[in-house]
């Protein structure tokens, strides 16, 4: 019975399968270098073969946690909260972001955009994936587009995705970590030839922080 009730609360976004939460420095994209509290929500079915957090995929491995607990923890650490996963938009983000906003916290999301947008966001980082493309409403609100480059074709994909975001969206190419030595030269050349793009690195991995 308890489990059924929890399932209902998770389905409504009042509890979330919480994988981990940690205070660190945003390593990637527009807000790189900014201290932020990360909330990593379990569950993802997008299936990127190079995903650096595959342990997040199975939501059932992560304990349903009440958003009151998540919010009160977050508020102790930072005024900037990054919600990531897993794919956070698999869940109803409205209760979590309402709670964060009630505490005057800035809400940022890292998402593949593969599910409809829920929640209230100060910053949306859209990282689209070929295996499960973003829904149109996420292209409309994205503040930054961050395309992961694993091979040359990802530069073609990046342009296709850039054609769909709003005009104020900041454009980033980020090397896939395991092939960084091979793709960084491609990205550097491409950005110099196409300066509407910027380079994003996973700087937390160079800094040896979470
Ligand atoms: C783990 S994902 C979680 C959020 C969401 N599922 C998404 O993909 O945007 C967080 C960010 O890390 C990026 N990422 C994941 N694995 C990576 C890797 N091996 N190299 C570079 N970036 C990676 C994703 O593209 C995304 O921008
Ligand atoms: N420091 C740090 N910055 C990040 N930016 C996006 C991350 C993510 O996994 O969503 C991430 C992460 O895992 N750590
Ligand atoms: S969408 Fe994000 S969490 Fe899901 S597999 Fe891809 S990188 Fe990993
Ligand atoms: Mg990460």
Structure, described:
The protein is of the alpha/beta class. The chain has a single domain, classed as Alpha-Beta Barrel (TIM Barrel), CATH 3.20.20. 31% of the residues lie in helices and 25% in strands. It contains seven helices and nine strands. The chain has helices spanning 2-11, 67-77, 94-102, 136-141, 153-162, 180-193, 203-207; strands at 15-25, 35-41, 64-66, 80-85, 106-111, 123-126, 144-149, 170-175, 197-199. Strands 3-1-2-4-5-6-7-8-9 form a nine-stranded mixed sheet. Helix 2 runs parallel beside helix 3. It is globular. The mean pLDDT is 98. Bound molecules: S-adenosylmethionine (SAM), the ligand Nc1nc2[nH]cc(C(=O)O)c2c(=O)[nH]1, iron/sulfur cluster (SF4) and magnesium ion. Magnesium ion binds next to loops.
Question: Which helices and strands appear, and what pairs or packs with what?
Answer:
Layout: H1 2-11, E1 15-25, E2 35-41, E3 64-66, H2 67-77, E4 80-85, H3 94-102, E5 106-111, E6 123-126, H4 136-141, E7 144-149, H5 153-162, E8 170-175, H6 180-193, E9 197-199, H7 203-207
Parallel strand pairs: 2-4, 4-5, 5-6, 6-7, 7-8, 8-9
Antiparallel strand pairs: 1-2, 1-3
